[in-house]
Amino acid sequence: MEDHKIFKQRVKAIYAMLLGVFALFIVTAFTVIYLISNPDVFEKSKPEAEDLEIIEEEDYDKIENGIHVRTGLVEAEGLMAVVNNCTNCHSAKLVTQNRMNKERWISTIRWMQETQNLWDLGTNENIIVDYLVANYPPAKKGRREVLKDIGWYVLKE
Fold it and tell me: Are both 63 and 108 inside the same structural domain?
């Protein structure tokens, strides 16, 4: 009798395991069928042409309050040379955060030409460097001004 109970328990366990495997098979089969019938389910949704905001030609190089809206660069002579040559490869933010003098800008341009495949800028190089030096010169570094006329005192023990 005891053997019969053990046998029944084992049969129930095997039956439960087979039901679990069968259910897993059914779920997998339905998933595969769904993915085959809908191959684009994992593609990012692409906006329709009418949903895209089209930048008007006149707004593309819009200037507001002396700032080129698209790039954030200061409006001045040479702006478009900088926009056309510098922002093809990197953000205008990289230009504005790297304030340098003329020699350093030229050195940086040479480095980009030697290592980053920057093309020969020709006559635009002087225009670009002049624009950058005039509008993004080196900023003084340091967290505070040099202390002057300090009134020292002696600590008492």
Answer: yes
> 127 with 62, same domain?
yes
Q: Does 44 fall in a domain?
A: no
Confidence of residue 58 (pLDDT cuts 50, 70, 90): low
Domain tally, the chain = 2
- Which residue type sits at 70? R
Do 131 and 68 meet the contact criterion of CB atoms below 8 Å apart?
no
Are the beta carbons of 105 and 133 closer than 8 angstroms? yes
Token pair for residue 27?
Answer: 């779920």
- Per-residue pLDDT, averaged over 78-92, amounts to 91
Q: Where do the H-state alpha helices sit in 38-147?
A: 57-60, 79-86, 92-97, 102-115, 124-135
* pLDDT (0 to 100) of residue 128: 94
What separation in angstroms does the CA of 34 have from each of 22, 39, 42, 55? 18, 8, 12, 39
Mean residue pLDDT across the chain: 85
